[in-house]
Amino acid sequence: MPGSLGDLKGIVGSKHVITDADVLAGRSVDHTGRYRGRASALVRPGSAEELAAVLRVCRDAGTHVTVQGGRTSLVAGTVPEHDDVLLSTERLCAVGDVDIVERRIEAGAGAVLAAVQSAATAAGLVFGVDLAARDTATVGGMASTNAGGLRTVRYGNMGEQVVGLQVALPDGSLMRRHSRVRSDNTGYDLPALFVGAEGTLGVITALDLRLHPTPSHRVTAVCGFADLEVLVEAGRSFRDVDGIAALELIDGRAAALTAEHLGFGAPVAGDWLLLVELAADHDQTDRLADLLDGVRLCGEPAVGVDAAAQQRLWRVREGLADVLGVYGPPLKFDVSLPLSSIAEFAMRAADLIGKRAPEALPVLFGHVGEGNLHLNVLRCPPERERDLYEPMMDLIARCGGNVSSEHGVGTRKRPYLDMSREPADIAAMRTVKAALDPTGYLNAAVLFD
Where is the FAD-binding PCMH-type domain (predicted)? Predict the structure, then answer.
């Protein structure tokens, strides 16, 4: 690689090829702080053409490349394993004008979610994916992992927002799939191939994203439950209701943490909390009351009709991101479960953690309408992780779930891919990978062993 550094500097400029050891060390650690790797250089292209040229140089030099966006991966998806070149999309951050007629916007892969949301809001529209990491997560990375988030129950995952994209392929060529029509059935759905591929098939450089009308009326409630099964059953009945906008499970232990460390706790009592939100073009307050009528709650729900009250109710859910690290980097399990298995999983996971890491504190939350949940194990020392990770993956599989829901497989979960995919599935995926990246140099640590 040293002989190719000059070529890279010639492509992107000397100041955008960084070899400082401290910078590389900071860029080679996972967002959780638990997983570290090693890199030889950080390269920051300023255009799709520069990025494609960088890929050609690295491929010809036999150098592995790890792609980085906002580096919010929770499964070591951006951690280099082979003294890699770190290829950052951070300079590809332009956000175009909103097409109000077609309700879409073009954004560079390095644009952060908050910038896209802001542009949509200014045009009277809404972007369908929302995450707590909105200020750092990039839309390119979100597409690469097919991220979901707080609005998935209404709008779907990231893949359902992508109507076109530009990709730098491993051979250094650029592919653009762009159509102005709302429904395009001409040939292969190539954007779908790269959404969720975790950067193993190419580097997304820009995206055409779908936008949605903004509902004029919104009502939010936080409800307390003593029994998780009752909460899940309520969530199952709510998720298919017209106008559903959010359906979030919050562990009562998580709410206690926000009370202790942030100064605000749950507005209602309960071992488990459900945040439910309806949004439509007419008042939803009476409809929400009808939905909650007869549901076995721990007292009256807290309801927010105006924006300020709704924001206060959302604080308990969104504040979790600020308290999960108070005991050090948590051990994270991002899982997808059948709704019928959630209560059993929560119980068995708590038992497993109690036996394998008795000093740890499990905290469960997530998007209960889809069964996409985030189990965070707080106060879990690194030596306990080895005893806990594989049994937890096995428990997820035995509960009928997938080992990943929204954050991808990354590096951390690649040994467990066969718990969620049949051998023929994995073989087909490898065939596609080999066809596009025959030398396997691109994101080589991700997805496959």
Answer: 35-214
Instruction: Provide the residue-wise pLDDT of the chain in tens; the chain has 449 residues.
Output: 555 888 999 999 999 999 999 999 988 887 777 778 899 999 999 999 999 999 999 999 999 999 998 777 666 677 888 889 999 999 999 999 999 999 999 999 999 999 999 999 999 999 999 988 899 999 999 999 999 889 999 999 999 999 999 999 999 999 998 877 777 777 888 889 999 999 999 999 999 999 999 999 999 999 999 999 999 999 999 998 999 999 999 999 988 999 988 888 899 999 999 999 999 999 999 999 999 998 999 999 999 999 999 999 999 898 888 888 888 888 888 889 999 999 999 999 999 999 999 999 999 999 999 899 999 999 988 888 888 989 999 999 999 998 887 777 877 888 888 888 889 999 999 999 999 999 999 999 888 87
Task: For residues 242 and 336, state if they share a domain.
Answer: no
Which domain does 383 fall in, by range?
327-407
Among candidate residues 322, 354, 369, the one where a domain is terminated? 322
Q: Write out the two tokens for 3.
A: 């002989």
Looking at this protein, which amino acid is placed at residue 262? L
> What is the C-alpha to C-alpha distance for residues 110 and 69, in angstroms, rounded to an integer?
6
| 345 and 265 in a common domain | no
DSSP tag of 301: P
SS3 for 12? helix
Residues 205 and 108 both lie in one domain: yes
Which residue type occupies 300?
Answer: E
